[in-house]
TrEMBL record:
Annotated positions of the 4-aspartylphosphate modification: 69
Molecular function terms from GO: ATP binding; sequence-specific DNA binding
GO biological process terms held by the UniProt record: phosphorelay signal transduction system; regulation of DNA-templated transcription
Location of the Response regulatory domain: 20-132
Annotated keywords: ATP-binding, Nucleotide-binding, Phosphoprotein, Transcription, Transcription regulation
Protein's organism: Methylophilus medardicus
Name used for this protein in its record: Sigma-54-dependent Fis family transcriptional regulator
């Protein structure tokens, strides 16, 4: 139901390439040992013996990282460090002198770490590999931040069941509250099984409110790396920790006056729940390493597939945070409890796949529709989207059969049982029953009933005449 692409995606995040390291060192024997060890570990490595040689190599080699000695034949390494930092080259400085003044100045200028000679090669390698991992995680999070900063305008809520009507009514009421006052909007908690569309509801809620043109920041609490989660949520100042080479806002702050969506809030570590509670209570956030607090204007939406009340009673989730989140609760129903929405969604995903891949129009056979209705859909809407898309992509005939759906045998068995009971129900009887059911659901609106069944109005009329059904 939600499609979202970013034209500014940095594809380099996903390309596994050999990292380049530039060593600036005038001790030739030590330099040869370092180059040999790094090449053995899988890095590309070049060596420069002076500032002048290093400046030339930077242009030709384009390193990702630099190992920079402080004392060189033609000057101090600090003279080169500023250029490295400006080019986003992660730099580790090395000094053979006991005085740490140069090292302290280097860290202030943007170096990520420093080492005192003599240097153990294995220790140096571990530091480089640790920095490489942190940089990759940071790049991945930057991509996610950029990708999720804007909500696609085409986000839709599909469904006419009573449960979905209730969800729409709640969204409408929340949007009205947003329009009536400039006050901080109440927190919304969306609950429901995995795959029921909690993230879609959050985006739809954002799109329906007055701040729809503001950022929508999606934070997946379950997938944030443990070593970066606090920095990513709350931000940090330059020098707050080893790799903090520049100040940056956290995801909470990045939401500005838009919407912050905390997905899978039940996975947030206990240690950070107190800090999040403080943000929700005081509407202020403080970056790591800072004494300054910044106001939080964003609407907060949280979602979970877990029972937070039960978790709080077991000590696995803070009860005070649960009560603070549980101001307005929206329960997403499982797909199996949404009645005719199952057919609406199946046809929606069919049409979406046909449009996306420029495929001809398909229809579901009567047995396919029965299988869709009878299947339990344990993965809910997410499972249906993938199953229907696969069926449409692989089907070479105009009619999608129950076999094309690829549902587990239990679905086909259920459909078979429904037609082969004691009364020996025939295929015509089953088709007539489905037509009557669709007409009843649509309040005898032929066009709407046809849409429910995924057929044209003309086909619907033909089949009604065939079975002697009149409106």
């Amino acid at each position: 139901m939600l499609s979202q692409l970013s034209s500014t995606t940095d594809k380099s995040v996903f390309l596994p390439i050999k990292k380049k390291v530039l060593l600036v060192e005038d001790e030739v024997l030590f330099a040869k040992a370092v180059v040999k060890r790094l090449q053995k570990a899988g890095f590309e490595c070049e060596h420069a013996e002076s500032l002048q040689d290093a400046r030339l190599l930077v242009k030709q080699f384009e390193p990702d990282m630099a190992l920079l000695d402080m004392r060189l034949p033609d000057g101090n390494g600090l003279d080169l460090l500023a250029d490295f930092v400006a080019k986003n080259i992660n730099t580790i400085v090395m000094t053979a002198f006991g005085d740490v003044t140069d090292a302290v100045n280097a860290i202030k200028m943007g170096a990520i770490d420093y080492l005192k000679k003599p240097i153990d090669l294995e220790e140096l390698l571990l530091i480089i590999q640790k920095n490489e991992k942190t940089t990759d995680l940071q790049a991945s999070l930057d991509y996610s931040r950029q990708r999720d900063s804007v909500v696609n305008d085409s986000v839709q809520l599909i469904g006419e069941s009573a449960a979905m009507q209730s969800v729409r009514q709640q969204i409408t009421r929340i949007a009205q509250l947003s329009a009536l006052s400039d006050a901080v909007q109440p927190t919304v908690l969306i609950t429901g099984e995995t795959g029921t569309g909690k993230d879609v509801v959050a985006r739809y809620l954002h799109a329906s409110c007055a701040n729809h043109d503001k950022p929508f920041v999606h934070v997946d609490c379950a997938s944030l790396p443990a070593e970066l989660i606090e920095s990513e949520l709350f931000g940090h100042e330059k020098g707050a920790f080893t790799n903090a080479v520049a100040s940056r806002p956290g995801l909470i702050e990045s939401a500005e006056d838009g919407t912050l969506f905390l997905d899978e809030i039940g996975e947030l570590p206990l240690g950070l729940q107190a800090k999040l509670l403080n943000v929700l209570e005081r509407r202020m956030v403080r970056r790591l390493g800072s004494t300054k607090e910044r106001p939080v204007q964003a609407r907060i939406i949280a979602a979970t597939n877990r029972d937070l009340y039960q978790m709080s009673s077991e000590g696995r989730f803070r009860s005070d945070l649960y009560y603070r989140l549980n101001v307005i609760t929206m329960q997403m129903p499982p797909l199996r409890d949404r009645g005719q929405d199952v057919l609406l969604l199946a046809n929606y995903f069919r049409q979406l796949t046909e449009k996306r891949y420029a495929l001809p129009h398909h229809e579901f056979s009567t047995l396919a529709l029965m299988a869709i209705q009878k299947y339990h859909w344990p993965g809910n809407v997410r499972e249906m989207r993938h199953q229907i898309s696969r069926a449409v992509l692989m089907c070479t005939q105009p009619m999608i059969s129950e076999h094309d759906l690829g549902l587990p045998q239990m679905a086909a068995a259920s459909a078979s049982v429904s037609m082969q009971g004691e009364t020996q129900v025939t295929l015509d009887d089953a088709e007539k029953a489905m037509l009557l059911n669709a007409l009843e659901q649509s309040r005898h609106n032929v066009s709407k009933a046809a849409r429910l069944l995924g057929i044209t109005r003309m086909t619907m009329r033909y089949r009604m005449d065939k079975h002697g059904i009149s409106v």
